[in-house]
Design goal:
- The structure is a single chain.
- This protein is an all-beta fold.
- It has a single domain (about 5-145), classed as Jelly Rolls.
- The protein contains no helices and ten strands.
- The strands form two sheets. Strands 1, 2, 5, 8 and 10 form a five-stranded antiparallel β-sheet that branches. Strands 3, 4, 6, 7 and 9 form a five-stranded antiparallel β-sheet that branches.
- It is globular, with a radius of gyration of 16 Å.
- The relative contact order is 0.41.
- The mean pLDDT is about 85.
């Protein structure tokens, strides 16, 4: 029988509060810098986006986690925008469906691979509703073990 993968070498929780994010926009005013350089044994991270309150119940789109690798010497990489799309995109769950009636969520995405040094943004992808200020992004970095 194969041994289960467990979370081993768990790092400290880090978090950031966010300003409002309109539909179709990135959280460019806020980002979390995730550095595998400081803790090289931490390979993955679990992200939580809590206190996510929309202006009204969204019925389409997605809330996404965007990971942008930093450039040499630890300087910030390019800021994501409509003209510069990121390639490391992860969808938060629960996903937003056409029959949704809720406007407040706690969302998660787990087992995100950590580049050696990167910035993490939130993307309000076509929900049609603003995410109000006060949403909190936190993450816990870890490595698998048996």
């Amino acid at each position: 029988m194969t041994a289960p993968i467990v979370r081993n070498q768990i790092g400290a929780v880090a978090f950031s509060a966010y300003a409002a994010i309109t539909s179709g926009s990135y959280s460019t005013g806020n980002r979390i810098t995730v550095s595998g350089l400081a803790t090289p044994n931490l390979l993955l991270a679990d992200f939580r986006l809590t206190v996510v309150t929309f202006g009204a119940a969204p019925t389409a789109g997605a809330v996404q986690l965007i990971v942008v690798p930093r450039i040499a010497a630890g300087a910030a990489g390019p800021t994501p925008s409509a003209m510069l799309l990121p390639n490391l995109v992860y969808n938060f769950g629960p996903s937003i469906g056409p029959t949704n009636t809720g406007a407040t969520f706690d969302m998660a995405v787990e087992k995100v691979p950590l580049p050696a040094d990167s910035d993490v943004y939130i993307f309000n992808n076509a929900t049609g509703q603003q995410i109000n200020s006060g949403a909190i992004l936190s993450y816990l970095a870890w490595s698998p073990g048996a």
